[in-house]
Batch of 3 targets.
Target 1
Amino acid sequence: MPDDTVTWRELLAESSAALGDRNHARWMCEVASGLDGDELVAALDEPVTLAMVAHLDAMLARRKAGEPLQYVLGRWQFRRLDLMVDRRVLIPRPETEWVCQTALDLARTMTPPLVAADLGTGSGAIGLSLAAELPLGSVHVWLTDVSTDALAVATANLAGLGRNGAHVRVATGSWFEALPAELRGTLDLVVANPPYIADDDPAVDRAVIDWEPHGALFAGDDGLRDIRTIAAAAPAWLRPGGWLVLEIGSGQGPDVRRLLSAAGLTDVDVRPDLAGHDRVAIARSMVGKAAQSSISDQ
């Protein structure tokens, strides 16, 4: 790289040529400069410090080595949130935004205040979006994860939520086990993006295997291990009429339907993503006499 008389305009051009992608280069320049969008445009002809050049050089080297862009940047957009992300958590994906939208739509049909849990939260993307997009004070959100590393990332993202984060709590543990016992039978909404990839799935992208946390990806021989666990426990934790929302893998719809129905949940539905693949499974806890009948039969 040139000395400290170089401008951002020159660095942007060099980075674009090196990466073959002007957008990626611009995002890296934004991170290295601390300037976003129009701020960087306004500063294109200003000189760059040596520290900024070094930061950009390091990001370019990481990207060329195959590290995913999101980890290189250390941040990624998820709906309205600008999330911190690194190798401790999965990269937020558009499919999960679709899952989050389903959860938000269901939440808006309920009478507030709501109690919601985002199980296996990772970066906090889904749970924090619930807190950010639903009316202030209308929802109490629990973020849980068995990984303390992941919860450290979620907690950092929670700190950036401002007033909307006042009713968000973080708890360590596996799925429902992380939650306080007094929440049993009270949850209005449970949402999770659990691991759902079969251990030997040959279709998994090499970059995913090399860089993203395996504990958040793989779920046994059929990819359903964690979905089974969540489905079996959900009726005891949801209030009557409460909803469960799961992200699932393409082609898992029929199996997930059976698991949710076998657990005693009702109104089971599997919805496709924008590409037409199975992506969102929803189910509801029994209400009224149906719930009482189910309990008496046990």
Target 2
Amino acid sequence: MISSLSKKRNEEEMTVRKNNNGKYFDLSKEIVRGKEGRLDDQQLMGLLAKLRLRLSLTPKCNAWCIFCSNEGSSYSAKCEGHADIDQIIKMSDMLIKNTPLRSIDFSGGEPTIHPDICSENSKLFKWTKKHPDTRFSLHTNGINLKPHIVDQIKDNFSRIGISVNSLKFETWNKITNLNNTFPIDIQKNKFKSLEDNLEYLARQNIGEKIFLKSVVMKGINDSDEELKLILDACEKYGFHPKFLEFEPQFPEQIKYIVGRKELFEKLERLGCIFSDDAPRHNDPNTYIPGVNFKYKKLGGLHSIFGCGLKAACESCFDFLCMFVKPTTDGKGLYLKPCSVLETQFDLTHAIETGNKEELINLFKMSREYLMLAPGLGTCGWNKEEKYKYE
């Protein structure tokens, strides 16, 4: 039985599933499937109460990371339009008013380059203050996370995740500059901006909300030196360290995966402490997506998505976020239930007409689709070959 998530729990524990005895368990063994592949209203509302709505505000980005999943979209989608903020607000209001949904993430692309978000008077941020009972999160690479953006969200947002991936410029540039897309002087300015923004965040005394994130890749940023830089920066700033297992976008990239056993042993050598029952295997038939650890006085987190693996794929409908993205022209929104497949559920008509029944039913259909484990066995995300990092 899954323990309820309490507001008193530390932020790094909020997405980790443990039983009532505080022990990790195989999520795939605890899921409750609907009758004949269908969810009844109670089951759907139960899902909406615990899942996060993850809104991609724009596919555009000011970095080009070698591991980028682009939230399941093609890399060429980085050239498409921003989401319509009015549609984002209208859809979110419909869901908050008519369902128990109370957790919303803003991501991209890079959300801070959306014209509304990078303004000093964001309509979206102003709207979030009308919903004090909803947990809002921002996921960013930190380059454009300027003080005027931080000032608008620091009081009412529950989490700010910053994908730094390395605090050494040479490594950071290698990770964020696929095929040398950006000139080196531009990259240095971005890195300096990232450093300045971290310093400003640290002065706001909201470290319990901040996560420094690193997607760990073998031979690139998995050395003791790289990992310790992240850990020590978190100690300096009072932030949470978060390490994510690399998700191959192409089959040839499997060699970059750093498994839990190897990574946890590295982190333990650096002073991190894991509980005795923390899983150290990467068994494809078992799904324990989040693991906590301690580093000195800090709480840390390790996460796995596991797309295509048996237990992860079968558990996805019961665990992973509900991804909503802008249409190609930026005039509509759609649900993308499976990251590795191209399936889409267009939400535009339901939003424009204010049809709450249609909107909720589309979310229901997307979760029922995931109950079929449609991405099972997928190896690689079918990205454009010209963007492959080998």
Target 3
Amino acid sequence: MRKFELYNPIRMIFGAGAFDQLGELAAEYGSKPLVVVGRSHARESGLLDRALELLTGAGLDPVVFEGVEPNPRVTTCEKAALLARENGCDLVIGIGGGSVMDASKAIAFGFYDPEGIWKRIAHWNEDHEKIDKALPVILASTLAATGSEGDSGSVISNDETREKAGVIDDALFPRVSIIDPELTLSVPLDYTRDGAIDMILHVLESYFNGEEDAPFADRCTEGFVAEAVTALETVLEDPEDIDARSQLSYLGAIALHGFINKPRGGVFQIHMLQHPLSAHYDISHGRGLALLLPRWLRYVSRDNPDKIIQFGDRVFGMALENYHPFEAVDRVIDRLDEWLESVGAWFYMEDFGIPNDPAKLQEVAESAIRVYGAKEGVIDGIKPLALDDIVAIYRNCVRIGTPEAVMEEEPEEPIEDIVEEDAQREEVMEEVIIVEEGEALPEGVEGEYVVEEVIVEEEEPKQEQ
């Protein structure tokens, strides 16, 4: 087993009604918080007004920043950090899904240098600087998904450079994370599904790409996935099931907490391939992961079939011992495909408006290598991925395997011609009934019939030897 350090100082407040503690908890860390929310949901649902009432009721003087978008932009974080500086804020409170929580962390360290946020994220650039301090952060999650409420990471996009990357630093651990499953009840089902797939990938990436000798971590992962699958299917059938939503909220919060993945390590190859897709085409993170997961798994499957077979056995209950390892692996991935389709998460590039353009796919792959390929130009993992490998995986995600072409459609026949042809066919149509000689025609049959005489030749009896 590899050596590792497990450190997670987050104070997690979990359970229905936990959001009511926001004011008293925030008062422990500051007096003038910047309250960060998305573009509309927090205000329209009344959650923002409720938060402000709790904060002012506890004697705090909140400042509001609205407008964090999905795949949060560095320019948005810069504006919010500048607003916090201008108002003398001493605390950041993020209320929302993964985008809001990630942005809140970037705003917290950007407070000390609003224009320098990106250079502390873009570790591949020469002007990169490490984070040295950040304002205290409190998070209240409204979507079970990214796990940002349980880790020290933040993922931000740069529209100008078409890059999306994460930054991890101990200074970004939230002081408090409020995980109230009731806040997730108003989340649309497709976002709930996307979030469940995201949290599943948070443990599966390490499961497939990490150290082999971590049996307890493997069991945790397998149980995690099984429970996430069950909870998601329950919520899709009954969106008001608070127990199933609570399970998703808990699983999402602990996926990146550390104790599951730390013993194995392992890079997040699928995330590293998804981030540039989001940066270039602004697609939902969870849907991008669902798009890539089965294609990535097929591409790398021959490099570690035993782990994939173990997954099929323990999570899907598949009996695979009598199959060749490669056939067993294919059966597991087929089963995964079926599950994705059953929850409405089987996608192609075209479903997100991504053209089947080799030049564009090459550009996105180059972005993945630039951000995550280090000096060697290869993303490490179960199967190290070079540029050509990434392009191949992307191309496997398109509906057809060749570039899009304008297809000439056959001209439609005028409707009156079709009707006339059908009428002519009815006039000349004959039904042929084959009967034995001497057999009567079926009762109730009308019309003219051609009776074909069938002659059956009897076989000569075989002579005994």
